[in-house]
Amino acid sequence: MIKLSKMHKRLLALSAVMPIGSALAQNASEPQLETVTVTAQRRAENIKDVPVSVTLLKDEKLDVLVSGGQDIRLLAGKVPSLNVESSNGRTFPRFYIRGYGNTDFSTFASQPVSLVYDDVVQENGILKGFPIFDVAGVEVLRGPQGTLFGRNTPAGVVKFESEKPNTKKVEGYYNVSWATHNTVNLEGAANVPLSNEWAMRVSTLRQHRDNFVDNTFTKQDDVLEGYNEHAERVQFLYTPSTTFSALFNVHARSTTGSARLFRANIIKKGTNDFADGYDFTKLNTNGLNGQNLRTNGANARLTWDLGSVKLFSVTGYEGVDEYYSRGDIDGGTPTGPGFIPFQVQTGGGLSWLHQYSQEFRVESKNAGPLNWQSGVYFFKESGEGYSNNYDSNTQAQTSHLQSHQNNTASALFGSVTYDLSDSVVLRGGLRYTQDKKDFRTVEAINVTQIGPKSVDESKHKTNWDLSATYKLSQDISTYARVATGFRAPSIAAASASVPITVADAETITSYEAGVKADLFNRRARASLSVYNYDVKNQQLTVVGGNSNVTKLINAAKTTGRGLEADFEAFVTPDFKVTAGGSYNFTEIKDPSLSVAKCGSCTVTDPLNAAGRVIIDGNPLPQAPKYILNATARYNWALENGNLFVLTDWSYRSKINFFLYEAKEFTGKPMVEGGLRVGYNWAGGKYEVAGYARNITNTERIIGAIDFNNLTGFVNEPRQFGVQFKGSF
């Protein structure tokens, strides 16, 4: 039986009739929110003091999202201004911050959003999909971050930090869940002190889902949409003294299963509705579908405390041993569904990839108003990728194109912080980058390449940022920031009808201001930021038209503006809520820019004299204007434990799939919700829960293929599951 004190009963009654702010103001002695510490400026700081729009996901809020075995795309819409999508399924995610990203799915595609895992940049899109497990937190930094983070960060950074070993005690956790379609998620970690100086932490993840989609062409049941994923991480911490520490990290990932399922003519002509007869559990395809991925990596993070300064060294290696993904691009067979002009089945991936990076950074420890940090950075990547075409009737390979790319970059960077007073802090940063790419075609079988077989590109750029923080009080601070960013040139491989294409370097200038506040004796926290940015020579990807090709172009200018807000609060001691939202407006500004139109869709943009689509004034692809998210958690304290209910919701407004606008290729708004009901006991040491993801069973077309028919792909289905967690 649930026992509530008189005070709790009064609080519940008040919360039912009073606004959140009023309820909070009545309870001065109630629990406070923990201080949020982030490393957005490469130092551990209170989030309130950081002059950057940043959101941190950690602890239960993050655990709830990953409980159903989903991949990194689950972060889409869970924080303001962030979208994540993929046309490759669980591999090769593409990130967008403030509407600014890149839809390119080619092997060596670069993105303006950088993903940093344990201080090491994950440059290639394949590396960005490493699973989320045993992490201390995920920081999303919005706006250019190039003066402190290396490699292509004009849109922002998504930063992961693994839980670290410690020499204090043996501890760890285990996490088991089972859900719809026999979806199994097994996760665990163990921290083991080896001596007073050494500690080890071992973390592992196993995920599985059964195939549950039928192929109506081959008359086979349950042959698609399954996966097997496993990943491991082993860390060693060495602390021989108070002035030196070394953290070593080795990790690997292996994934097999279905690639993205493309569905022919899934979109009703002249609308963005599902075509009549659509069934998620059935697909009519005469092509093979599957993907395999194996990656590995290692890094070493060394720290020396030299008294007046700290010296940091971060050495990283990331490799791809195998990546192959194959799918039926037209999404059907010669007999349908609907009219399919021609059959296309492709496969491709990486034969191998090696990435090396090294950073040395020096950080001051001055007691006075002036502090600084500076460093050098080196990056080298080399790899070979390929693409194949197949005969959909015989499954035989009909063509093969293999490419090789080397990419080297080096940089010098530094930043200065000066406290003008107890209330005013100024910060400035500078970074010089030299970036070079060498790209060449290694082999072409049944492909007559147009133009040169190799391309070399080299660019250098100096970026800067300047910010000021003003503390209105101990609990409220404001900031303003101006920052520039740079993304090096990108190169796309040739195809049967398109030569190697190059997109020139793009640059951004961003203006941002915001306020961050702890409210009601720190029982609530809120932040609000506004921004405006201009991108010159933005790299854009043109796909399809009337043929299955990909090429790169530059837009003379794109602009973006908007705002972001985060809020969290204890409404009562047992009732906690969070909310976030963003408005992002983007626009392409280049009257001379046009692209080929699709073969079967209803284009709503004007056409030029050559019959090409004018995209001037269009929003960027995959850039929703509105993103909203909210969570609510209520706890009932029982005699031997706690019963709780937690719900989380996210919303994004409509999106444009491509550079041009068409009725069929506009994704509808999407709402996804989750519910979790559980019980924990022994001071939170054990927990059992039932949960649902996409509880409303929302079905949406979230992407498309535009060259052949109205082919699309869809979001994840509803899922019900149970979970048990324990710690030791």
Strand content: over 45%
- How many β strands by DSSP? 42
Q: How many DSSP H or I helices?
A: 3
Q: Compute the gyration radius: what is it?
A: 26 Å
Assigned CATH architecture: Beta Barrel
Q: What would you call the shape?
A: globular
Quaternary state of this entry equals single chain
Tell me about the biggest sheet? 22 strands, antiparallel, barrel
CATH class equals Mainly Beta
Care to describe what's here?
By secondary structure, the chain is mainly beta. It has a single domain, classed as TonB-dependent receptor, beta-barrel domain (Maltoporin, Chain A, Beta Barrel), CATH 2.40.170. Helix content is 4%, strand content 56%. It has three helices and 42 strands. It has a 22-stranded antiparallel barrel. It has a five-stranded mixed β-sheet with strand order 3-8-9-6-7. It is globular and about 70 Å long. 47% of the residues are buried. Pfam families: Plug (PF07715), TonB_dep_Rec_b-barrel (PF00593). Keywords: Cell outer membrane, Ion transport, Iron, Iron transport, Membrane, Receptor, Signal, TonB box, Transmembrane, Transmembrane beta strand, Transport. It is found in: Cell outer membrane.
Topology:
Elements: H1 6-17, H2 20-25, E1 37-38, E2 45-46, E3 53-57, H3 59-66, E4 82-85, E5 94-97, E6 113-117, E7 120-122, E8 135-142, E9 156-162, E10 171-179, E11 183-193, E12 198-209, E13 213-215, E14 220-224, E15 227-241, E16 244-257, E17 282-283, E18 290-305, E19 309-328, E20 345-364, E21 370-390, E22 397-419, E23 424-445, E24 454-471, E25 476-487, E26 490-492, E27 501-503, E28 506-519, E29 524-543, E30 550-572, E31 575-588, E32 594-595, E33 613-614, E34 626-637, E35 641-652, E36 655-656, E37 666-667, E38 670-681, E39 686-693, E40 701-705, E41 711-714, E42 719-727
Motif (TonB box): 35-41
Domain TonB-dependent receptor-like beta-barrel: 271-694
Protein name: TonB-dependent receptor
